[in-house]
């Protein structure tokens, strides 16, 4: 199952489908692209990927692919099969012949052998139902030449007719020339008027005033009326004979075409098998050319849910940046049974959504039988379901807000997701009041984890980062950010959450220190401490990668896995990060749940219902308020 219905548009697969269509050589391949769909049969999927690999090798080895273009003659064949009284034209016969020739050339290429071994065994399987129609090709060749002319030798009758036609034409021409000279000598012809043909008969242009002096049949006259076109009386018999011969020639040609049409009807099954072969090979060729353009390969495939990719690229974005002379940073990501759901956080515009869309697109491409742009050492699994929630989900038709639509989607996920599902959620929990939105999102994430589905989730919520840090089956990931340069690196690092860098970004763009100070005073000190710890972890991670990059540049080595193991110092810092969930535990305090408390600055009393870190939930007149612990004291009465 794929969700939502416009998944292809949201993840970018629509552009991939259009690229495939453009790479096809004809309509038979384009139809296969239209039929391309996501599937979950592991054996079939591996077979399709191996087919594309073989085709890529074939295209690279063969100097000239046997198909440069081709005509889709199915409609022509369908028409003569549906109407037994119809017959093929010469042009249609030649088009069918070219289809047969293309098919044979294609068959010979894909079934090449060396030492009794097929060079392209997967391609050879496609041609197992191919039946060469050499007799039909030869029959057409005997009747029609490549210039579209029916051969004299097509039949004895046609040869005889054409021989007599030549003789009659010679006689006509000889007599005509003689009559022309006589009329010219008699002054009956305007010197500037050439000879002409009317209704297939040779006529002499006689000046209208002299028409009674020239015996023959008037066939036409000029617009001005000054000239009449007369068939000489002496040529009527020969012209009539020529007309009869031409009619006989046409009937004989039709008879020959009817015979060829009958042979085509008898070859219907073999022709449609050939159309299938040509269309399928054209389609696979398009997939192979696409793989060349985007650097697609077949990873190691396993028949289980798994994402273990190195150096993965979003193909559309990579091509776009390449055209601009820029390079797309690769993605390395692991979703395994131990860490099925990755919660990705980090600064805005840091690449979280691109990371999510990359996973959404590449997994979909892979399960459509397309090679994907990742490192050859990567391992990929398959999923029965791909669910995605990304972008503005506001429904004007149903009058649903963005958050309501988001919750409706989450409800669908909860009822449909299972261990063979990959969920992809952007800005999880956003769109509503942060504390409630975060709590609901955490509860949903907890349920999805219990359903053992796989997923990639982007968020800014601290409680989700903390939940991922302490919960088996979940893991944190951060989009790396160069704090010194204040710019995102668009690289994913797994094993720790990311920082939003909100205050630092605000300072860099020029927001006043007064506003920033006031803002920091409104934020829980625990939040700020953890942000600083996260930034330290990320800074060391960035430094580690940059050092590795410099080392690789010096040694001429390409980095295999930028997401190296976190060193011991970073692990110590992550201990503090893992304490994020402790915000919800009771903070040591003389206050106890159920105490009557008084607000220091206001003469109001309430009941202490909950303590969250340095925050307290107070019930005053049946309404809940969240306050700092230092704002309340136990009531004396």
Low-confidence runs: 393-399, 557-589
> Could you say which structural class the secondary elements and strand pairing correspond to?
alpha/beta
- Strand order of the biggest β-sheet: 1-13-14-15-11-16-17
Strand content: 15-25%
Outline, from the CA principal axes? elongated
Summarize this, please?
With 637 residues, this protein is α/β, with parallel strands linked by helices. The chain is built from 20 helices and 22 strands.
Account of the 3D structure:
The chain is α/β, with parallel strands linked by helices and 637 residues long. 47% of the residues lie in helices and 17% in strands. It is built from 20 helices and 22 strands. The strands form 5 sheets. The chain has a 7-stranded mixed sheet, with helices on both faces. α2 runs antiparallel to α3 (27-35), α6 packs antiparallel against α8 and α15 (434-450) runs parallel beside α16 (462-470). The longest helix has 31 residues, at 236-266. Mean pLDDT is 82; it is low at 393-399 and 557-589.
